[in-house]
Design goal:
The chain has 11 helices and 12 strands. The strands form 2 sheets. A 10-stranded mixed β-sheet has the order 1-2-3-4-7-8-9-10-11-12, with helices on one face. By secondary structure, it is of the alpha/beta class. The protein binds S-adenosyl-L-homocysteine and iron/sulfur cluster.
Length: 368
């Protein structure tokens, strides 16, 4: 029997990719195809105990059990919206919480078609980037998620909702490119045929603009999609609401985006929240059009979603339309994203760092 502290140190089996598991199998003198067998139990048959892996020897199952944890994410709460969006609150091993949001089909969502089920996943507990309009950054950053904690959000949501997820957006809590290595590993698990099997073209990474990491991502042999949270089309306005603009200004950011488009031969998307009297003037539309034209980028306008504790306002429908029409008239591919799940605080920017201190979790139904 292992002691409690030793057990705590065991890594999660969900953090491993095929090559990692093959390397580990080799150290146990097992042929490399054992790795694929294990992964099949995890991702196709979705068992919850090593001892259910019935085509492996008992000795090997014991070895796995001794070295790895096989623990699903615990769902502390599931909330449903009137528009059928569902929000899942997961409790992690260290008692921190993350959220994932399952969004029904919507024409303005990435890669969306009528039968699409999009899952918005988190990559960090909290966020260090402190954008002035976003709930996720309000209480700062706690930690990065492990690859397994990221990928398991998909497995658990599928199990809890009975739905098959076929589109992933990294737009939950956190800045994906600030947790770069774990993000890449999680994408491999989500994408690989031995894993969850969602094609790279159905995976979108959203970033607030970590220019050097955008270049690194461009150098990866991966056809994932990129969305860039722009929200300001001049440095003056952007840095008022996004502190990251002081580190990587618009010239640096747009150059990195151009590099991405060129390497991937892909169009990226600019996300642009419309906030009343901050960035919704026509002169900003003109500047935004200029940037988008240079990269042939699509533009996704997001009317600001209310965040408790923040004073920003969503512009009127008329103002939104005026901004949108200005972009369309310049020949750009622009859409206005209709919010989903705002009645349960699951819309963009409404995912907030939650802790055990939050009394509402005490006694909440455990939906394991
Ligand atoms: N950190 C990454 C991904 C998570 S944020 C990023 O910033 O891109 C996901 C999206 O929600 C981003 O486009 C973000 O800017 C947007 N968002 C944040 N707060 C919002 C709010 N209050 N209303 C609407 N969208 C918001
Ligand atoms: Fe972080 Fe993105 Fe929110 Fe900015 S918008 S605070 S980068 S999660």
């Amino acid at each position: 029997m292992l002691q409690a502290e030793e057990m705590d140190k065991k890594p999660s089996i969900f953090d491993l990719t095929l090559s990692g598991l093959e390397a580990w199998a080799a150290t146990r003198n097992e042929p490399s195809f054992r790795a694929k067998q294990v992964l099949q139990w995890l991702y196709q048959k979705r068992i919850s105990r090593f001892h259910e892996m019935s085509d492996l020897s008992e000795r090997f199952r014991d070895e796995l059990d001794r070295h790895f944890l096989l623990k699903p994410l615990i769902c502390a709460r599931k909330t449903g919206s009137r528009d059928t969006t569902q929000k899942f609150l997961f409790a992690l091993e260290d008692n921190s919480f993350i959220e994932s949001v399952l969004i029904p089909a919507s024409p303005a969502l990435y890669g969306s078609a009528s039968d699409r089920k999009t899952l918005c996943v988190s990559t960090q507990v909290g966020c260090a980037y402190g954008c002035k309009f976003c709930a996720s950054g309000l209480e700062g950053w706690t930690r990065n998620l492990q690859p397994g904690e990221i990928a398991q959000q998909v497995l658990r949501v599928e199990a809890l909702s009975g739905e098959k997820v076929n589109n992933i957006v990294f737009m939950g809590m956190g800045e994906p490119l600030a947790n770069y290595q774990s993000l890449l590993q999680a994408i491999e698990i989500i994408r690989a045929p031995w894993g969850i099997g969602i094609g790279a073209r159905h995976i979108t990474v959203s970033t607030s603009g970590l220019a050097p990491r955008i270049r690194d991502l461009a150098d990866q042999p991966l056809q994932i999609r990129l969305a860039v949270s722009l929200h300001g089309a001049t440095d003056e306005i952007r840095q008022k609401i996004m502190p990251i603009n002081r580190r990587f200004n618009l010239v640096t950011l747009i150059d990195a985006c151009a590099y991405y488009c060129e390497k991937k031969r892909q169009r990226i998307t600019f996300e642009y929240i419309l906030i009343e009297d901050v960035n919704d003037g026509l002169e900003q539309a003109v500047q935004l059009a200029r940037l988008a034209r240079r990269l042939e980028a699509k533009i996704n306008l997001i009317p600001y979603n209310t965040v408790k504790g923040l004073d920003w306002k969503r512009p009127s429908e008329t103002r939104q339309q005026t901004f949108y029409r200005a972009l369309r008239q310049s020949g750009l591919d622009a859409t206005i994203r209709r919010e989903k799940g705002s009645d349960i605080d699951a819309a963009c920017g409404q995912l907030r760092l939650q802790t055990m201190r939050d009394k509402s979790f005490a006694g909440s139904d455990n939906l394991r």
